[in-house]
Amino acid sequence: MKQVVVTGTGLFTPENSISNDELVASYNTYVDMFNAKNASAIEKGELEAMTPSASDFIEKASGIKSRYVMDKAGILDPETMVPQIEERPNEAPSLQAEMAVKATQQALDEAGLEASDLDAVIVACANLQRAYPAISIEVQSLLGVEGFAFDMNVACSSATFGIQMGRDMVRSGSAKRVLMVNPEICTGHLNFRDRDSHFIFGDVCTAVILEDSETAKNKNGFEIIDTKLFSDFSNNIRNNFGFLNRTDAEKRDDKDKLFIQNGRKVFREVSPLVAQMITDHLAANNLQASGLRRMWLHQANRNMNNFIAKKVLGYEPDFDQQPTVLDEYANTSSAGSIIAFHKYKQDFKAGETGVICSFGAGYSAGSVIVRRAG
Ligand code: CO8
Q1: Cβ(60) to ligand 1 under 6 A?
Q2: Of 44, 155, 250, 286, which is most buried, counting CB atoms within 10 Å of its CB?
Q3: What region, left, alpha or beta, does residue 45 occupy, with left being phi > 0 and alpha being psi -120 to 50 degrees?
Q4: How far apart are the CA of 236 and the centre of ligand 1, in A?
Q5: pLDDT by residue (tens digit) across 89-127?
Q6: If you measure from the C-alpha of residue 55 to the centroid of ligand 1, how many angstroms do you get, rounded to a whole number?
Q7: Which domains are present in the chain?
Q8: Which residues lie below 8 Å from residue 349, measured CB to CB, with a gap of 6+?
């Protein structure tokens, strides 16, 4: 059986960042405007007054301090509260494909490869900007890759599911070198007028290159020891946006056509499940949690990650063992655990082992055990 190795990772970070204070100021201005406009209905009890948001709640409940975004002005303008992203002509590269190419260049550099060395492209993310042609095929064309490409979506677990797909492809021989890339424009589908979730997401793109260790140029990559995926249907994180929305005009613009979650329930249900999944996955590979150098967990909630890591390890890990990027990037859906891996992998010594783990809507979860080669 071929040994598949991650030989390169890449990260594209948008230029603009929004702090909690900036986001909350915009939200609270909107709240004041809404309550003033509807003062009489609120007074009569026909409408509920909106409640302000608070930066200290956001940081305490989630660990998020800021987020990078593709458009800052439109999100912060209380009149719009939507990123303003101009539609491009068909002849121009789409925004997601452009982000993907930028992240890929970095991954190729680390792998010591040219784009023409790749023969398969997977775009794996929670939100795809169009139905077809596949964004991945556009990325393939922009990079000049001969072979095949496809898009896939398992929400926050798209990257780990994509890694398993890529690994299986290399092992079976259906591809030699796979690019798995995660262009996440989460702010396009976030309701910035919803107090419960307006602070959660940011935009970013990550890239991972998977290839056969025998032919890899980078001999210091990360061997994939094993992958494990899990899914179990739940409505607790849901977005009803889809191609049938136009067939029911009355409900087309309802709030459920954007991200909605029952965050408390997700926290309670998913955290123990993920901790057990990692524990079982390690055991199935005859590995001890005590031998883990690091856990690169999905970046949704700092407290959730602390709970999971503590359950797996048996003690509260420090930043080095369980790094976070939530403070700077917020939740970037499928890209979160890959940002953490990208930023905090260089100090690994040959033979050291870690786990990349994602979890989210579906429910879905993925665990990837890696060991530094070399
Ligand atoms: N400011 C001030 N107070 C607030 C705010 C706010 N913004 N929001 C809520 N509160 C209040 C509530 O009203 C409540 O008050 P009270 O106690 O008086 O009723 C109190 O704070 C507590 O509210 P919650 O119970 O909601 O707060 P939690 O402590 O549970 O924290 C979190 C909320 C941070 C959302 C938390 O529940 C969480 O992170 N849960 C895990 C969620 C998770 O992991 N989800 C995964 C989703 S990601 C995914 O799957 C990808 C989807 C695809 C991407 C889509 C892109 C858009």
Answers
A1: no
A2: 155
A3: left
A4: 12
A5: 999 999 999 999 999 999 999 999 999 999 999 999 999
A6: 13
A7: 222-372 (3.40.47.10)
A8: 372
